[in-house]
Amino acid sequence: MTSSQPVILGEMPSLSKLYLNAAAAAARRRVLGTDEGAGLPETRHEVRDVKAAVENLTAYQHLIGETASDVLPAGFVHALAFPLAMSVMNRDDFPLPLLGMIHLENRVVQSAPSRFTEALDIRAWAENLRGHRSGSQLDLVTEVRGAGEEGVRWRGVSSYLAKGVFLPGIDKPTAAAVPAGFAAPDPTALWQLGVDTGRAYAAVSGDFNPIHLSVLSARALGLRRSIAHGMYLASRALADVGAAKGDAFSWSVSFEAPVFLPARVALDISTVEGTDGAWERSDYVAWNSRSGRKHFSGAVAAL
Amino acid sequence: MSVNGQSAPGPKDSTPTATPAAAPASPHGPAAPAAAPAAGPVGGRAAAPASAQLRKAVIVGGNRIPFARTGGAYTKSSNQDMLTAALDGLIARFGLQDERIGEVGAGAVLKHSRDFNLTREAVLGSALSAETPAYDLQQACATGLETVLGLANKIKLGQIDSAIAGGVDSASDAPIAVSEGLREVLLDLNRAKSLPQRLRVLSRLRPKDLAPDAPNTGEPRTGLSMGEHQALTTAQWKITREAQDELAFNSHRNLAAAYDAGFFDDLLTPYRGLTRDSNLRADTSLEKLATLKPVFGKNLGSAATMTAGNSTPLTDGASTVLLASEEWADAHDLPKLATVVDGEAAAVDFVHGKDGLLMAPAFAVPRLLARNGLSLDDIDFFEIHEAFAGTVLSTLAAWEDEDFGRTRLGLDGAFGSIDRSKLNVNGSSLAAGHPFAATGGRIVASLAKMLHSRGRVDGRPARGLISICAAGGQGVVAILEAH
Question: What's the predicted TM-score (pTM) here?
């Protein structure tokens, strides 16, 4: 982490403005060429006293399959902090194009729960710029604390890939080992995702990225159909794991094939219990119920 | 405490019954192993059957309407219509016109919100005294059996002297909800105070909100239908297609034989032109069943063995059972076919596949028998509800499995096997159909009649076991004995 002073934003930035700005930046780059600067901005962004709107929380909880309790689901915290994380990637000195960035992986450690009545301080920064066999990869780190508190309650690390962007001075690792073949197990759940799944999650998360909204808007960005938000899928899997996880847990997901909508996604959740019968972890994997192609996998584990 | 001669005296010390209250806790040695598995081991509860202190609850008889495949004879009949029809037949059979029954309990699984007082409305529409209280109950497919157990307990405790338990379901006249979008708009519209507010709310309506939201048989937490869940369990217990078809064939054969023998003459009232269950195929054969294509488990990666022939179809129908204290039955000069001995409910953690969705009875039966000092060998009739042939066979396979007995039931070995000639001897749901909440009443009335005609076995009353699985990973089981 950097020692430079944080940029404190007066309020949570608007995602739609960020996307517009990113589109403009992309156009600028196309005309003027890419900046030669290869490093990540050292500045971290911060917003203080953020509160969740209860209507939004309820809509999110119902959509994801969580009971509408007063505690913010870990995936909701991600959505709440997401515009701040995006604002880091939207900086003029950010070396990679925001639009078209692919979410590869997400790791969250929630040490303590937050309630919608509490004000939260949120910080975000980018780090760990590194090569990837098909582009450049980086981590966006987000930390959430109770307002004015020291201890981190929620820490998320999102790994993004800028496909086809190779920055000077960054090693390109040799081609990764071919992923092991995936044999779908018997499912424990089946999700029927309608074409409006992306719009529904956009409405509760604020993430109106056009690739999720409709066939037309997705085609405009080069996809054949719209795709489900990765964090929607991961958050549903987290909800499906159930109450055993308690309030403090780690939660990871790695995304493989995107879920083109509409879709039938099969899911297997397997639980590991300790010798005393207490819950230790639940591993999940999801695949296309027709083709058997793996969509994503991850784990929720006790801290 | 008696008003209008209706309320019964409180719990009384009736003469001790023949029930061996001090029977050994379990025929399997120590009832409660020290390291009990979490899933609910057999035994474990110290309580002996309390029947020594309680009076008996007897089954006087039952009445149902023939069960109809969905979209058939009862398409336009509502739950209330069918429950009232079954109730009226019961009233006619036992001369209950204008009778003030202690309490009527019934329920439906697929229920309209307007039917919040379904059972009371059926009572008001029947020939029973309008002063008969009633309540609704819902425990998915176990609804019917649970009403019998709950009302029998009230009789045993002396709270009531007579009761009618029942259940009804219509898959044809199922409730269809408006979409969430329309529902929220309508509710918000109702809360809006001014015209501009109302217009703002209305402007939220989208064309897709007008599409209705029909009920389905999917489990809310998994999205898998009941058939798909059972397909996983069927594969897990390696139940063959042939074994499932044979069970289905036996169900049809036994039910047809029971009709031919006149077994249902005093258990059933014709309705809407039906005199037999419309799903019954008396002429089916193993060859015909073998030609059917699998319908469940096709996408699950396992061998698909479950067909429309060895799965129950969606069905409409209703059933009722008349329960009473011995004194009430005697005073009304009514038969006492069987007693309700004991019941047990269980549930399994099916959501992530620890156990199969419909496997709860595999745990409930060992607990129930242990509490009553009985083993499978002490049962003369097994009534295991055929949600799917695979459900019955998976349950039997679990009981015969050494490892399941040791690790899941906490026994020394396998729980045991049953004499298949005692299983569903007059047919069950695969042939009769399964209007969810009505199945319990069908089984209780039929079993009570079978027990009564068997009378005594080896110097003790004939004994029957009922096992019903239910959505949500639940199961309810019960023991009946010939009176």
Answer: 0.84
